[in-house]
Design a protein that fits this description.
Elements (H helix, E strand, L loop, with lengths): L13 E5 L6 H20 L12 E5 L6 H11 L10 H14 L4 E5 L9 H16 L3 E6 L2 H4 L11 H9 E5 L8 H15 L17 H8 L3 H18 L6 H4 L6 H16 L8
Length: 285
Amino acid sequence: MASNVHDGDRAKGAVAVDAFPGLGKTTAVQQFAKQFHREEISAYGARTDSGDERWPVCWVSLTGNPSLRDLNRSMLSFFAHPGSDRGTATQYLHRALDCILACEVKLLVIDDLHFLRFPSTNSVEVSNHFKFIANSFPVTLIYIGVGLAKTGLLSEGKSTSNTALAQTGRRTTPLQMEPFMVQTATDRQMWRQLLITIEQRLVLAGNGRGMLADELPDYLYERTTGHIGSLMTLINRGCTRAVRTGAEALTKELLDEVKLDAAAEAARAEMAAAFRSGKLKARTR
């Protein structure tokens, strides 16, 4: 973002956070955007020099197979603009960009970008619209999606012959997010540190030191395959059951009664076999 602060006639680079579902990409970007928002408000105040509300971050979540009109309307809805319920795509565009300038937006996040189907008429129009925003307005774009590299958006046109999408690939830096691994000592230490961090935030009467990090590291990895989304779902549902049953602690027996997402349950048998055979281990010394 700091490197994108320059004159408007220079092309500004974008970032694409591309990862499988359940790895926490939206949560990570939300945390970054929240921190950036607070820093901007703390440094420059809640109001701009013209008296408008300062909104350093604009967050847009795409739905279905969105058109250019849908995208502009979503931006207007974020600003609670009174004109977000009527108008043409061009009118929505001008209103949205007026809000971006008036509120001094510096970060524009587009979530669920994989809902755009590449290549298609809508995808090319929206892609060109992103380039127009990046070129003409003082914002940095962050895309969030699943399998963006395979769609053709970031692949230099290898999945599509459209040169407009190839240009987007040249201007966009992909950032990958991977599940937690336990193949090396460093990986296992990171997994342990994650469990310790979760432990410290659990509000259970029987929550003792090492309840997760010392007693259940192999079991939790077996159940979740290192996916943070599945892990947090298991912990949340386990805590609810622990409170309702009066156990007030997370144990293997209690967590065995918790059902998880289909992907985690499907991989559990193979993962359990790997731990039994000694091919994998999540416990540190």
